[in-house]
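A favour, since you know our structure tokens better than I do. What I am after is a single protein written out in full by you. Could you add the entry underneath, on a fresh line?


***
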Amino acid sequence: MAMSPGKDKPKMDSFSIETPSKTESTNASQSPESPSSSPTPSRNCFYSMWQYGGIPEAKGYALVAMGRGVGVMSNVVVNAALLELAMEAAGCPSKKELDAMEADGTIGSASGYICDGTVYGQNPLSLISNIAVATGLLGAIFMPITGVILDFTPYRRLVGILFVIIFTIIQGIQIGIGPNTWFQMSILQAIAGVCFTVIMMTSLAYLPEICEEVGQAEHSTYTARFTAKQFASQATFLILLGSLSVGLGISSDSVRTARLSQAMNVGIISILFSMGWRCMPSRPASRDPPQGTRFLVLYGIRQNFRTAVSIHREYKKGLRWYLLATVFAQSSVGALTTVAVVYLSSEVGLNATDISLFFFVVLVGTIPGSKFASELSKRTNPNTSWQLSMICLFITLVIGAFTLGDAPHKYLSLIWGLFVGLMLGWFYPTENLFFSCVLPKGQEAEIAGFRVYCSMILAWLPPLVFSILVESGVDAKWGMTFMGSFILVAASLLKFGSGTWEEILQESQRSEFAEHHEHHEHESIAEPPL
């Protein structure tokens, strides 16, 4: 017999995302589905195409999400340039130079060549992954701190704006990337990653409030629009960057392309972030600090631990295994942009412009991938579909890792990029649909915040494994394979740990919700894959 979430299941608190208090909404007594329940706009934000039922934070979230998308794509280009500069400083030949050396007989095989040069005591190939390690560790440390600020203080908007300013300043400084500044830029890259994590958390904190104001059905439409706008901003940025780099004759120069990318990035995110946070309203503290608690940061860590224990004890069929799978799957998929840049640059020979084209193809591939995810989830269930997506993604990564290095033409990697996009387009919407079905009623905001924490807690581990392997002289293709193995761990946890789909739905009391989403699962995408 289904248990009542209000009485039989313990209430769990987590941090990073919170719901508004009753005093924050002037329409709390109205039905969230009725048009009259939408609040009057607190400010007139821009044009009619951005009208989200008169809710300024929805408009602001869309703009901030677009800015985040542009920032991610530009920093992929910067990573490619940093890697090239680090290899040059270590005296390591590029892929193009190795092919030339193999052709004239200087070396026996380009694929078997190992450079033993180092920079600052590290293999240049591990530079980008080490940046990701630092970002992941600092992000995991700062998440409980940020969550406490979001929950117990009225400074959510202030924190978001502050870190947006710091992030934008760093992007501007990185326009000066070059042979004499690349190491300093690498340090700034790690700091920018932490700032980006805080920006994401502060903006995500508005989503439960938007859902409460407009209702679940309308919110699903909003999240689909958020995703479409972020996808469009990423694709447009990459097309514009590629066109300008070719037109200016710098497409073969990764450093100059990175400078152009960051210059464009600063201009675009300055506009999008300023417009977005102008729309975001300030919020009072959602809760009062617990009595007798002197150190709120420690309280946040303890409360996340209590949430994990409660989920482990009370949701043994679905939610527990979903979150465990998220820990491993997201750490691996999140590292893909980092490790792929290293592999594509060192093993395949792509420069910064080529890599931007590669990720554009990946983005395009996510479109048919999401359609396939929708159909397969209908025919099976989200649990089975998500497991299959992870297995297929791992196989795709391994095939690319072991074949592209010896491919006759570097642009054959674009075919691999298309298949990676297909797999990611299958992975992400299925993951979000699965989450919407295992989410216990009455605990949406608490579990949503804890899910964000789970998705980032091990973000540092796959890049660290990659760095250790590279520093040990192991080929980058093996590093990519071990990075992808975390996805297999996630799939195995679901396969051998979770209950049947009927048991999962009974536990979460989401049977009716799941039936409704059989026709709308593509709308559950909260974030695009890159």
